[in-house]
Amino acid sequence: MKTYHLKCYHCERPHKETESVTECIKCGGPLETYFNYEEVHRRLNMHSLKTAPLSAMKYVAFYPIENFESIVSLQEGGTPLLHATNLGNKLGLKYLYIKNEGLNPTGVFKDRGTMVEVTKAKELGAKAICLASTGNMAASVAAYASAAKIPCYVLVPEGTPVGKLAQTLTFGARVIQVRADYSRCAELASEMAKKFGYYLAGDYTFRTEGQKSQGYEIIEQLFWKCPDYIVCSVGNGTNFHAIYKGIKEFYNLGLIKKLPKIIVAQTTGCNPLVKAFQKKSTKFTIIKPNTVASAMAVGNPSDGRKILEDVYESGGGCYEVDDEYLLQAQQEMAREEGVFSEPSGALSYAVAKKLADENFFKSDDVIVVSACGNGLKDPKSPLKILPEPATLEPEFSEIERFIDQKLYAIRESGSSEKTKILFSNTPTAEKVGNIIIKEFDVDITNKILEAVTENIKQFITKGKKIKKADLGYILEEVLDEFSLQDRVISIEDFEIKTGMHKPAKAEIWGNAFGKEFKSTAEGVGPVDAAIIAIKEGLKDQDELDVKLIDYAVEIDTRGVDASVEIKMTMSGKNGDSIVSRTTSPDIIVASIKAFEKGFNILYSKR
Q: Are the CB atoms for 117 and 206 separated by under 8 Å?
C-alpha cells in the first residue's frame, strides 16, 4: 500500500507523479506530499528509530521513496548539535544550540533533500536533471547527479560565489550564469524541463521530504524533547517548512509532547517574509534581493506562504538584521564556538543574538539555530569586514614591531564601524592622538602622530571626510613608512591629462637618490602613464630595474568618495618580490604612492 500522495497546497487538487512533482497543473501552486501516518507507523521499527546512529537514511520510512534500490546517498545527515555555551553565556541563554549543517557531504543542508530528489529522478527514469540555484543547491544536486550518472544542467545568477561554482563544475554539471536573480533562473529552468523533458529539481515537495530529517535529528539530539524555539534563515522557505513538518510528524506519532515556535531569519536586503509578518499576512510582496547572504537572496520565495502559515501556527515570528550585523555575528559564532558558517548559515544566529539582546527569550529557553552551510562556501564575504594580514620583512625586529605597535589591533578594530565619520575638518594632532587611542587602542610617538595628521590633511584637502576605515589605513601606512631603512625616492607632485580618445599624459616631479628629477610619459591610462614617467625619471639610477608585476584595486566602503586601497606586486632583478599597499581617496595618488613605497621597500631589502 502506498504511504503518500501529492496534492496542491493551495487548491488541493491531487496529482500523480507522472503529471507533476513541482507545481499544480491547475492553479500553479506548490505541491505538498501527504502521508498515511497509520501506514507509516505500521512500517516503523521504533526500537531502531530510537537507538540507531544518526543518519538521514535511518528515517527512510518517512520519505516518499518506493524503490529502496534506487536510493542515491552520500551519507548525508547525522550532523552535530553543539551546545553553544560560550555564546549562550554572552547572551544570557543557558540552552543555546547550533545545528551545524555545514558538515553534510557537500557542506550544506541541501544534501538531505537532494538525496530524495535525485532518488526520485532515478525512479522516474530521468534522462537529465535541471535546476536553478543561488549556489548551494547547484553543488549538492551536481554531486548526487554525478553519483547517479544522470546529466545535470544548472542555472545560477551571475555573480554567484566562486566557491559554490567550483564545486558544481568539479562534479561535472553544465553551468549557465544568467544576468538575473534567482526567481528568473527558476522560471528558465522550469521551461527547460518542459521543453527537453528533464527532471526539474529545486525547492519542491520531494526536497522538503528529505530535509525533514534535520527536524528529526534535532529532537533525537535533545533526547527526544522539543526545543522552545528553532531559528532558521529563509530564502525559499522550503528548508524551514521541512524542519517544522518533520517535528510535527514526530508530534503526530506521539513521540514528543509539544511543538516549537519557529523564528524566520532574513536580512534587510531580502526580507519579503518579514514584511508580510509585520502586516500579519500570508501574502508577501516580491522584492529584488540585495544582501551578502547570497544563499538566501530569494525575493519571491516559492514556499513563502507555507512558512508564514507555519510561523503563525507555531506562535513564532519573522525578524531581520542588516548585512554588517550579520557579518559580525558570523565572526562571533566562529570565534566563540569554532563554527565557520557562510553568511546565510550565520544569519539564524545573528537574528537569535538580536532577539536575545532585546530580551525576547527567557534565560532557560531551549533555542536551536540552524547553521545551514559551511563558511568555505562563500570565503570572500567575511573579508568584507576582516583585516588582511600584515606583511613584514623576515626579521625578528619586524615581529617585535608588529606586537609593540599593535599592528594587529589597528586592522582588527578597523573592521567594525568602518563608515563611522571621525573627522570632517582638519583636526589638531592632539585630537588625532586621542581618537587613535579610543578607536584602535594604540599609542604612537609624536613624529608618527605628526605624519598621520599630515596624511589626514591631504585626504580632507581632496574633499574626503575621514572614516574609521580611512584612519586605520593611514595609521598603518605611516607606521610602515617609518619602518623603512631607506627612502631612495619620493614623488613630490604630478599632473596628468587624459581624455576619452587620447592616451593619458603624465608629468612627474620627484627626488631620486639625492637628485631632483622631472619626467613625462604617455600611457594607456593615467596610472600607466604615471608609472612609465616615474621609471623614465629613474632609468639611469635604478640598479634593481624595478618592475610592476601585479596591480589590484580594492574598495571596502560604498560611495564614489570611498577610499581605495592599491596593492602592487613589484620585483627587482635580484629576485626580491614585495607587495606594496597604500590608500587614498584618489586612485591615481594611491597608485603613485604605492609604486614609490614599493620601490623604497625593494631598495631597503637590498
A: yes
